[in-house]
Design goal:
Layout (H helix, E strand, L loop, with lengths): L4 E7 L2 H14 L3 E8 L3 E8 L1 H14 L4 E8 L3 H8 L18 H25 L14 H7 L1
Antiparallel strand pairs: 1-3, 1-4, 2-3
Helix pairs in contact: 1-2
Length: 152
């Protein structure tokens, strides 16, 4: 199954969480990435697959949620390492810095992390623009390895 997107539904309780997760998995061809209770009795269901399948699965889950949704999101064009990180298989090496965000919603945190690259490019561009030296900028999701070797 091609994975380039994730869908998240965060719920207020465990019973609804099982119902929504089951509904999402039955709605389309998606893979269960994470389904578990999280703090304060909430439940998080995360599926992966191609964007159309993920969106359909999340929509089906929302219909089954019956007013128990805390937050939801669908993100596309994700780097393959995101899937390894979600499963716990991708452990970072030595860290030069640590940034911490706390939220009442895991889905909101994942959206914020996804936006971090855009924000970093924006902040850097503003500094270069202030000096009158910005020529162009871009953010490229899932950069092909051939291009990376040309940059280094």
């Amino acid at each position: 199954m091609a994975q380039n997107a994730i869908g998240i539904v965060e719920l207020t309780g465990v019973a609804a969480g099982f119902t929504v997760t089951d509904t999402m998995l039955k709605a389309r061809s998606v893979e269960l990435l994470l389904a578990r209770t999280i703090c304060s009795g909430k439940y998080l269901a995360m599926v992966g697959g191609d964007m159309a399948d993920v969106e359909t699965a999340v929509d089906a889950g929302l219909l089954a949620a019956e007013g128990t949704v805390v937050n939801t999101c669908c993100l596309s064009n994700l780097h393959p390492d995101v899937f390894a990180a979600v499963s716990g298989a991708n452990v970072p090496g030595e860290l030069a810095a640590l940034g911490v965000m706390q939220s009442f919603s895991v889905a909101a945190l994942i959206e914020a992390a996804d936006a971090a690259v855009e924000a970093a490019v924006q902040a850097g561009s503003e500094r270069i623009t202030a000096k009158g030296l910005l020529v162009n900028r871009t953010v490229i999701p899932r950069l092909r390895p051939e291009l990376l070797s040309e940059m280094i």
